[in-house]
Amino acid sequence: MTKAFNVVGIGNAMVDILARCDDAFLTEAGIEKGIMQLIDMPRAVDLYSRIGPAQEVSGGSAANTIAVIAALGGATAYVGKVKDDQLGHIFAHDMRAQGAAYETTLAPKTAEDETGRCIVLVTPDGERSMNTYLGVTEFLTPDDIVPAQMADAEWIYLEGYRFDGPDSHAAFAKAITATRAAGGKVSLTLSDPFCISRHRDAFRAMIRDGVDLLFCNRAEALAMVQSDDFEACRTALAAEVEIFACTDSENGCYVHAGGQSWHVPADPVQIVDATGAGDAFAGAFLWGITHGADLPTAGRMANVAAGSVIQHIGPRPVADLTALFKEQGLG
């Protein structure tokens, strides 16, 4: 049975505010380098007033992944909560302009919280430190999940960051049930080591019972298994799912499935901004496996996409990924 969507993403919906800074600014502002930390509205306003020139784009980790799939020509939809305010309308318009279906009901103008935003501070080494005000995106509920849409997806893609919310676990469970009942498959990204520390047991239960494809990076794999042995962590996580794809920065990625494993090297590139690398990786990988690529080839596509996005400021590729794939003999 043909599905309407290759991938439906579920996660945060917010606007990314990207600015350059030096390490001294991070120290002065009390920001821990290289991680995502949750902040409240007053903190968001204060940081915004202190940063230099910024680029503002619609974002959210899973939204970036869906944008990559849509840019490659995949059929996509997105579920994430924004408010009926200026930033919310910008987000909705941008997702649709990317080619993704976006029909999540907007939080009303009277809602106390606003559309979320993430202030991403990029240091000269390309590392990004994310300061996230979730706003209304935190309040995604099972009512926002449309079973018919989940049933019409080959894959759904769940964002680990979205576990920070009172009803998100129930929303994910509803999406998984509807997808699997219709023969679809479930992918999950672990998102961040600190996110794992907050929700390890819930992640473990979901991975064991409802996830077919797991994405993470080296730090997240170590955090999930609570070990410093990277190979052992990969083996343990691969045993829990049908497909396991783990990135390792400049070393490329490791893909495990069916008792087999592949190390897929990455071409060296100049890092300008690491924001969105994992999102682009997941997007290209999912596009590959939904368009006939074998797993090592999907891994190569994913490395190319991640390598492209880190060569400029911003979380989404600006290069023509289809052309890059052809240059690499991947399509």
Please outline the helices and strands.
Layout: E1 5-10, E2 14-20, H1 23-29, E3 36-38, H2 41-50, E4 54-59, H3 61-71, E5 76-79, H4 86-98, E6 101-102, E7 115-122, E8 128-135, H5 147-151, E9 153-159, H6 168-181, E10 185-189, H7 193-210, E11 213-217, H8 218-225, H9 230-238, E12 243-247, E13 253-257, E14 260-264, H10 277-290, H11 295-309, H12 321-327
Helix pairs in contact: 3-10, 7-8, 8-9, 10-11
Report the uncertain regions: none
Q: Mind describing the biggest β-sheet? A: 9 strands, mixed
Class by SSE composition? alpha/beta
**Radius of gyration based on Cα positions:** 18 Å
Q: Please tell me what the overall shape is.
A: globular
Helix percent reads 25-40%
Number of helices: 12
What percent strand?
15-25%
How many E strands?
A: 14
Instruction: Give the terminus-to-terminus CA distance.
Output: 25 Å
| SSE succession | EEHEHEHEHEEEHEHEHEHHEEEHHH
The figure for the number of domains is 1
CATH architecture: 3-Layer(aba) Sandwich
Q: What is the third-level CATH name, the topology?
A: UDP-N-acetylmuramoyl-L-alanine:D-glutamate ligase
User: What is the CATH superfamily label?
Assistant: Ribokinase
The average pLDDT value, as a whole number, equals: 94
Instruction: List the strand order in the largest sheet.
Output: 6-5-1-9-10-11-12-13-14
CATH class category label: Alpha Beta
